MotA/TolQ/ExbB proton channel family protein (Undibacterium curvum), 201 residues
Amino acid sequence: MFAIFQAAGWPMYLLLIASVIAMTLIIERTFSLRSKKILPPTLLDEVVRVYQSGKITPEVVTQLAGNSPLGKVLAAGLRNVHAPRDIMKESIEEAGSGVAHELERFLTTLGTIASLAPLMGLFGTIVGMIEIFGSQTATGANPAQLAHGISVALYNTGFGLLIAMPTLVAYRHFRALVDGLVVEMEQQAVKFVDVVHSARK
């Protein structure tokens, strides 16, 4: 592997850094965007029970907000249970926007790497081509330098595509996953609003 990096030249190290960053972000997002962590299955029922029991205290709301992203959204509603429906819904939407932004953390970086990796590979290819043309002399080409230039060009192109393809797949996957989680969060929050305000009729 080290021999390949030596043959590919210094542009390969830029691609190596990009691949390490992409892999780190993919692993981090895989653990952070687990559905059970974002949307605990029984949390809505527990919040409804707390509301119906009338045991809403600042401590309970703070604990709920720290429970999970869904908890943070429901806590915003719980703080405004005595407010009109529109105000309660607006507070939940504001909290939801903040939570959605948190869920999207690092996705822009991942998308940037997916777009940038082929360009970095192309840059390495150009460096290799420059070496090929630089090997031309009045007496002909230096075979060793010519071979090195070709290897730089091909290795960088291949490695750039190798990084870009899985990173792009991961970016699209996480993007769709976040969108789905946000929609489910909104639906659960609306259910809570309906429970609160239907109980008052």
